[in-house]
């Protein structure tokens, strides 16, 4: 009897794990379809029905797996930043850990430039779609503003870390340093140089690290 109970529990656990994996796979399909449509056709022109068709699922499944269009767009932004299937807090991201472990300011900026180049290859197109959607969609405008403010706050933290190395220029406040970092790590800056001017991602990453060092350090 005990063995039978154990076996029954094992089967339930297996089925539960299967369902969880199926749900995760469906979520990935929905997000992939939405990303392709948002960045190709635009946010406004894309319907939930389009996303469902692209993912090969029912409309109700799109809502159940992710949510409404603004929620889908935010999830795309968060997963693009983290490079995983879920949002990851800044302090837990691999590149943030690497930057914090670096001792010299030059090394911190070099690592951060490389990281931003990698992130923007995933994030740039979808973040620009979010910006454009925010023109006439209040929910998207709120997401845009929230993430922009979060980026600025994170850059103030990085400015403080750079200040602690003793290598920052004395004539720049931490707020000014944060603003320079914030403006140059933006999707718009990546779009100008990589997409419009044809820089390679590696060139862009090296440029960021070198430009920040020349602008901000002694």
Describe the secondary-structure layout.
Blueprint (H helix, E strand, L loop, with lengths): L1 H40 L6 H8 L3 H7 L3 H14 L11 H8 L3 H29 L4 H26 L10 H11 L2 H10 L4 H16 L2
Protein name: TetR/AcrR family transcriptional regulator
InterPro entries: Homeodomain-like_sf, HTH-type_TetR-like_transc_reg, HTH_TetR, Tet_transcr_reg_TetR-rel_C_sf
Pfam family, one: TetR_N
Quick gist of this model?
Keywords: DNA-binding, Transcription, Transcription regulation. The chain is an all-alpha fold and 218 residues long.
| Strand proportion | under 5%
> Under the CATH scheme, which architecture of the largest domain would be assigned?
Orthogonal Bundle
Number of strands: 0
For the sheet with most strands, the description reads:
none
Morphology: globular
Terminal-residue CA separation? 75 Å
Rounded radius of gyration (Å): 21 Å
Helix content: over 70%
Domain HTH tetR-type: 24-84
DNA-binding region: 47-66
Keywords: DNA-binding, Transcription, Transcription regulation
InterPro entries: Homeodomain-like_sf, HTH-type_TetR-like_transc_reg, HTH_TetR, Tet_transcr_reg_TetR-rel_C_sf
């Amino acid at each position: 009897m005990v063995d039978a109970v154990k076996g029954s529990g094992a089967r339930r656990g297996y089925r539960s794990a299967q369902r969880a994996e199926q749900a995760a796979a469906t979520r990935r399909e929905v997000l992939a379809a939405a990303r392709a449509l948002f960045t190709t056709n635009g946010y406004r022109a894309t319907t939930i029905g389009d996303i469902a068709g692209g993912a090969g699922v029912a409309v109700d499944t799109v809502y159940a797996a992710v949510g409404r269009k603004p929620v889908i767009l935010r999830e795309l932004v968060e997963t693009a930043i983290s490079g995983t299937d879920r949002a990851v807090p800044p302090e837990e991201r691999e590149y943030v850990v690497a930057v914090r472990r670096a001792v010299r300011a030059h090394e911190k900026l070099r690592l951060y430039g490389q990281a931003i180049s990698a992130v923007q290859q995933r994030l740039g197109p979808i973040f620009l779609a979010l910006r454009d959607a925010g023109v006439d969609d209040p929910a998207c405008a709120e997401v845009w503003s929230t993430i922009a403010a979060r980026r600025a706050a994170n850059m103030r933290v990085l400015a403080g870390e750079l200040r602690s190395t003793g290598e920052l220029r004395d004539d720049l406040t931490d707020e000014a340093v944060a603003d320079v970092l914030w403006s140059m790590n933006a999707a718009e800056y990546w779009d100008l140089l990589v997409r419009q001017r044809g820089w390679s991602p590696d060139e862009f990453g090296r440029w960021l690290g070198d430009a920040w060092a020349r602008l901000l350090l002694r």
